[in-house]
Amino acid sequence: MPEFSVRLIAWQRQHGRHDLPWQKTRDPYRIWLSEIMLQQTQVSTATPYYLRFLARFPDVAALAAAPLDDVMALWAGLGYYTRARNLHRCAQVVVEQHGGAFPSTVDGLAELPGIGRSTAAAIASFAFGARATILDGNVKRVLARVFGVEGFPGDKKIENAMWTLAESLVPADGSDDDVSAYTQGLMDLGATLCTRGRPDCAHCPFADDCVANLTGRQRELPAARPKKAVPTRRTWMLVLRDGERVMLEKRPPSGIWGGLWSLPEAGGEAALAERARNLGARDEPSPLAPFSHTFTHFRLDIEPRLVEVDRAVAPREIGDVETAWVEPKELDAYGVPAPVRKLLDGLRGSLL
To answer: CB-based contacts of 110: which residues, under 8 Å, 6+ apart?
Structure first.
């Protein structure tokens, strides 16, 4: 389809998205920030976070100089927290090793923390007009349907074939604005028309040539991820209360919710009760309503327990774990995982 890029650019300019807060700029900092936030996250969810980040950290130097805790607190609720840690580290690398200026090439950008091949191409295209292709989930869906690519796009062989196809479609000439419109067009087409559930084929610029549309295979392409049983893990969380204050402890930098502030945990009822006693609990923990949280590769069943601390009892367990006694009104200053924050907010009116 030699006219693919021409048709896509024309469609994007007439029907694509033009009012997103990170558009109409060549500032690589703003473009990079938006691209990191949009990984695994919809525009409607990412937008308020993006605006808050810009207000707090208007440039890469401000972000690099900020404490990681401030960054994590502002990111809390957006999920995939490795992105936030990499975001902070990337800002520091740009300042320390590149004088505060982002590299202008795909290869240079891809060497920075948290920036993969597709994200590097998007930044290079939008900020520097580079002729580079992107291949995120939306683009994979568009290519699989339009060109009839068989197989699960997450399979390495299929993904490599898609990279080859995507690279062959990048416009060979035209202005920097043409290249940006093409890249934005791929994103817009997948996000607004060629959606996963209900593709709007009637308004698609490729409807007359799309393999999926012509053969009625929109639900089959792209092929779904092979199904695997989702494992379940279980944990017990301690809501240790001192008046209105609740104890939070900082999680290790790696693993789930790495670097965030959460509740003390244990792997069982007896272990949690022992932790509670060691932390100065007055009575045995009482059960709260259990809840679950689903991650990418597993489901976490959470059993929360509430207990009042006895101020006369010196805690025997703190160790190297960083802890904080936090009032409800102070929670915004801490990066608390969304399900834990929901638990604490739910308790605020009745118990806290």
So the answer is: 116, 117, 120
